[in-house]
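Reopening: structure tokens for the calcium ion complex, inputs below.
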Amino acid sequence: AKPPPTATPANPPPPNNSPPRTDAAAPAPRTDSAGPGETPADRALRAFLDHGPRAGVMIAAHRGQWRRAPENSLAAVRAGFADGAEIVEVDVRLTKDGVPVLMHDERVDRTTDGTGRVADLTLAQLRGLRLRAGLGGRQAAVTGERVPTLAEVMGAARTLGLVNLDQAWKDREAVWRVLEQTGTVRNGLFKSRAPATEVRAFLDRHRGALYMHLVDDANAASVGDFGQNRPPAFEVVFDDVRDKVAAPAFAEGLRATGRVWFNTMRNGYAARFTDEASLIDPARGWGALIARHKATILQTDNVRTLKSYLTTGAPDPVPAGAVRVQAENYAPGGEGRAYHDIDPGNRGDGPGRRGENVDVCDHDGAVVVCWMRGSEWLTYGFDVPKAGRYTLKARVSSPYSPAGTYRIAFDRAGPGRPVPVANTTAHHAFDLQDSRDPRELAAGHHHVLLSLDAGAFQNWNLDYLQLEPVRP
Ligand SMILES: [Ca+2]
Ligand SMILES: [Ca+2]
Ligand SMILES: [Ca+2]
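Re-run output (same inputs, fresh job):
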């Protein structure tokens, strides 16, 4: 039920109840106030080129804001900027007829309703396809969105912000022509891990091109190859906190002349400093990267929560009047009393409760109940602050359609109506879904039973439950 891990970082995750102490202070105030007549893109460029000690942290949206539109779609690029990203990262490939388009994979199979390699399809053939929702996958809904050309995306981004052109280096001359034709030379951010001589040749040929250099332990020495003429930003990748490039002194050296970019989407790009770990405690993710590793650009799958953290210090605040209980913090009492789990032991890789059978997984930093199967159930205690009408929301993930069905029973009454869990397009793509089965609750302690229908397909993960007041 769980995909194989994309990386196996050697540093073990800290125990859930003892986050590592860092000197993660509140994030620095942002320095991106508008000058007269400036567009958001002008501000983003100015911020990107400003590496001074007071430079704030910039947000880069990974493959666009795919939580609101298909990854690498025009709508996802627009949504990324609308949600607060100054940079949107996209993946560029050439069609059979040589047109740069947005597509992450070599093949169109995961993210569209078609099949085949991008390089074997003409633009006209690609335009006949429809993109799948979110991160795609075989069971993700087909949307009305089409594969966009790079020209369309750059045209849309011209006043909105910067576009990080991933996978574009091998086709950089064709991509450069698109930037020139669309008047977006100041928006397009190239990146590579090519030798400095190759980078320098490109930048000499195309004055004004924006460039960021990618470094990990294998090419850390390439920083020195740029001499006094360093690019304005470095992207640093480390899968282990003991990597050379993970040393705070390495990042400090880069910060002296430019911005430092880290990726927090999954485990293994910045060890285990991830978006999901940041939601549990920013000191386990973004906060540590900012304080210890001098991050001034963070690429995220959670634009809104990172924006919330940078502006308020709280990534995922509990709404006013609501009560949140982590799924893994189910009631004490053991099998048959507090929970029922059909297979012995913890099948997950997360911090399960010793001697108990509930399955707990760590999905890139999210600690969740997983391997949820029909007939299993869990119980929770909720302390409701004020009498009123409440709805229960569940933060869930699943790449399946349907993902599963659960029922909620309050205070040992009969179970409510079946609640479908919607496909979120990946095990690591969590979404807060409303059960739409509101109840009147008195103030005080309530017992909640969450049960999985025995006859229904069940393959989903549960991060937390949240009881929210329903506004009349
Ligand atoms: Ca189990
Ligand atoms: Ca189970
Ligand atoms: Ca959780």
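The pocket of calcium ion (ligand 3) is lined by residues 326-328, 367-368, 463-464 (CB under 6 Å). Residues 11 and 240 are 6 Å apart (CA to CA). Marking as resolved unless the reporter disagrees.
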